[in-house]
Every structure is written in structure tokens, then in C-alpha cells.
């Protein structure tokens, strides 16, 4: 059985980001993530998908380029639950400027905290 999804900001489901204008994609992503700094930071409370615990650590950020997509620049944000140790990743489309500002392609949580001053 096929269940249709309601229309969202990108149109009728299933419309993929690769089929959308990159400016629209960044606008949608920017409503969920702060894309103004060195790393994408969530504008929402992250809870563990395994245990629903609120103690989640932003553990790594890995920058990469996805060829063949109009929204090429990406950051994989790895999180880890401090309660149950479940690890999960958010794939975030980022602006080219954020990608170009990265001195290295992968940052661990200590490096991120040091750069952000926390």
C-alpha cells in the first residue's frame, strides 16, 4: 500500500533536494540549522532516537562535496547520546562559504568546542 505524504515547503512528496533550486534547499535547511558560523548548529532540541534522552553530544563534523548535485556542499554532523551511547548522523546541506572556511575536513568535539569558544 502506498501512502501519500502531505505537501511540504519543497512541494509534493517525494521531491528530493537534488531536484530543487539550491537557494530553496538552503532556505529550508536554514530554518532547522544555523548556517551562519563555522559549523552547522541545530535550531532545535536534539533528542536521542533510541532512548529519547535529551543529553546528546555534538561529537564530530565532517565536511564533504557531493558531486552531481546542485547543492554540493555538505556537513555530516555526528551526535552521540550521553545516556545510552547511541550514535547517529545528520546530513546537512551547507553554504559554499562554510565549506571553504574549513581548515580541515573533519573536526572532533574538542576542536569544535575550542573553535566556538566553549
From TrEMBL:
Protein name: Uncharacterized protein
Amino acid at each position: 500500500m502506498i501512502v501519500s505524504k502531505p505537501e511540504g515547503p519543497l512541494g509534493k512528496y517525494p521531491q528530493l533536494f537534488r531536484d530543487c533550486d539550491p537557494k530553496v534547499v538552503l532556505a529550508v535547511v536554514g530554518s532547522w540549522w544555523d548556517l551562519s558560523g563555522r559549523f552547522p548548529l541545530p535550531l532545535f532540541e536534539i533528542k536521542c532516537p533510541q532512548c529519547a534522552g535529551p543529553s546528546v553530544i555534538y561529537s564530530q563534523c565532517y565536511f564533504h562535496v557531493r558531486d552531481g548535485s546542485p547543492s554540493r556542499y555538505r556537513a555530516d554532523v555526528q551526535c552521540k547520546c550521553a545516556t545510552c551511547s547511541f550514535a547517529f548522523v545528520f546530513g546537512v546541506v551547507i553554504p559554499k562559504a562554510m565549506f571553504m572556511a574549513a581548515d580541515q575536513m573533519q573536526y572532533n568535539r574538542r576542536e569544535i568546542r575550542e573553535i566556538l569558544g566553549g
